[in-house]
Predict the 3D structure of the following.
Amino acid sequence: MSAPAASSGSTTSAHRFPWKWWLRDLASVPKNGMNVFSCFACGGGSSMGYKLAGFTVLGNCEIDPAVAETYKANNHPKYSFIMDVREFLQLPDEKIPDELFHLDVLDGSPPCSVFSEVGEREKGWGKAKRFAEGQKLQRLDDLFFTFIAIAKRLQPKVVVAENVSGLVKGNARGYVNEICKAFDEAGYEIQIFLLNAASMGVPQNRKRVFFIARRKDLGLPKVKLDFHEPPILFRDVRSEHGIPIDPASKTAERLRLRIPSDKGIDDIIRRTEGGTSNFSLKIVHDNDVCWTQTTTRILRDCDASYLTDDDVRNCASFPQDYVFATKEPLFFCGMSVPPVMMANIAYEIAHQIFGVK
């Protein structure tokens, strides 16, 4: 994969980073001299994005041992910390490699399900939960502040944090104010962007909030993030055949009653059974961009089936040769920043903030 053309940070008319790519392509990406460390790394969606943009990813911190093993198998980090970020924050200086005190970018996606627009939201704030088998009980709504504390300690030039769009809506906006205050007290100027992966060369409608924080003492310029790449429709990325649904199931029965305007099983229930429904199964049509991927498998209108693992991989812009060693693709792709989404952001950070030519 050759280096992409330089950008001024304005709109783009073509896909700078293709959604279909292989990990082996990274060997041909020219390095830009910038280094990154990733917290809450999951399977490495953001890490792979930085690599596509020419950054060197030094390592990661991840609480889930099984997830960390998959990260290592695909990303080969120099430093890997399998622990809670709270534990990482408490490590003595001699346990943290010196390189991590001289970072260009500290990256992180603090777990965000308590701020999602689906689920408990406010009812889940302040509660300890176990969000995956084998994980510890933990509160999620304070992890963002632990991440900022790590930034204050390591003093990277730039901090990039990703979260769900629900963070900037409703009562959750109070958290944003606290986040901005914490960044300010840590010595960083903050910019906040609401971006959609579908306008960034990713075959998925995935709206996410990105916090871009620059160290005040360095006088770094602001970044402009404004993406308008053409949408990639589901028909252009899907497998020929989906995963069959049990024809005797209630889901199959309802799908047989679908009409072109139905966007999910809940639409069918409301139209044919009356009343309201919170049924979350979405239906993606060939002429649409895929819905936001979560850990719930989406339905295909074209053949009344479920998305395949290849569909999931493609809609998330994960590499074709990624090895999902310890969990299903749906988990990693639903929980990760799409690599191509992060590649576009990282590219603009390199050129606009760091002045990479």
User: Anything to note?
Assistant: The longest strand covers residues 188-196. Residues 2-13, 116-122 have pLDDT under 50 and may be disordered. DSSP finds ten helices and twelve strands in the chain.
